[in-house]
Amino acid sequence: MSPTAAERGREVRRKLLDAAVELIVERGWAAVSTRVLAERAGVAPGLVHYHFDSVQALLTEAATGQMREAAALIGPALAAARTPAEALGLLMASLDSYTGTDPMSLLFVETYLAAARDPQLRQVVAGLLLEFRAQLAAWLAEHDVPDPDTTATVLGAAIDGLVMHRAMDPTVTGDVITPVLARVFRDAT
Amino acid sequence: MSPTAAERGREVRRKLLDAAVELIVERGWAAVSTRVLAERAGVAPGLVHYHFDSVQALLTEAATGQMREAAALIGPALAAARTPAEALGLLMASLDSYTGTDPMSLLFVETYLAAARDPQLRQVVAGLLLEFRAQLAAWLAEHDVPDPDTTATVLGAAIDGLVMHRAMDPTVTGDVITPVLARVFRDAT
DNA sequence: AACCATCTTGGGCACTCGCCCAAGGCGAGC
DNA sequence: GCTCGCCTTGGGCGAGTGCCCAAGATGGTT
């Protein structure tokens, strides 16, 4: 019944990844250290560099993993929407769950920023961003929204921008901005 | 002709603030240290804590000063626009000057992030954000754009989001997104 | 039982960190 | 000339950093 060494090893890896996500959010990407990671994961400090090449590599894997999970939720959620108004409602509801200072918001902005300085991370994040846009664009195209690709780009950026601004101004809720954002769905010309 | 001690002191302060802006951009907010600041400013390390209470205070003053300057350029620039299309053109032109990895973009995102963890900084940044929005909203109201306040909010957030996304995907230029963004200017109903 | 791969431990190395402070200019005002 | 106030110097303190590594534990394979 007792797990094998390899299984325990994988468990430690997972605990370190979880701890990394927590700590990026709490302290900021650059302030996550070997020893704090180990302590949070309940593990000896030496294990960090046994399971990962570097702290940077651990943070990268943790952050991209979390973003991948979040991105995977978008497609199925969108599939439930029948009209553009419904889709916007879904996006706004998810926006309202991000206050700009909650874990997921901070993780995203921290990772965007880290990606601006790390080409390898940037490539991964760019891929996730394109994937998110593609899912949104596909839905828009199926529901006859004009310029689906560009519209998806603008919507995605607006959402990330709004999340960032909400940290400064919490009055920016989905309810308030829905009427304006709805305009981008309407026919061009 | 030789400057007084007080004048030289003010000059050192200024050099430290300039160095701080450069280093926040190059290394990231949390990675700017006393000694690197002093070296970049061409000044002895001890002067950092003579002229400022802490490194954090120096970074805060440097970043908010730079943002204040940038925000002050918006009003006059907007005044030159006669139609919503022209105003959007101006905003898009300024967007194109920010690649997402240029100094100003990184400084803004770094500061937003630092503000999420520092209530004092957050208050200052929030004030600047509201000021920017108010200027944009005032212009929109004068030119009969519906929901000027909310529209300004969405536009401002979209621009910041687009800047952040451009670091990952440089193909997002003003030209491409102008047609979609133009929709938010049109009459509601 | 012996061996082996794998994981784990905890301390060590060389370095940097923020902040402090005694000591030393140095020009302005008396 | 002398004192006063401001600015400046450079070293030092305790703590924290990433990464390394010799040594030990554990459990499956031969």
UniProtKB/TrEMBL annotation, chains A, B:
Transmembrane segments: none
HTH tetR-type domain ranges (all copies): 10-70
Gene Ontology molecular function terms on file: DNA-binding transcription factor activity; transcription cis-regulatory region binding
UniProt key word Transcription regulation: yes
Coiled-coil ranges per UniProt: none
Keywords: DNA-binding, Transcription, Transcription regulation
Recorded superkingdom: Bacteria
Transcription among keywords: yes
Matching PROSITE patterns: HTH_TETR_2
Name under which the protein is recorded: TetR family transcriptional regulator
Species this chain originates from: Labedaea rhizosphaerae
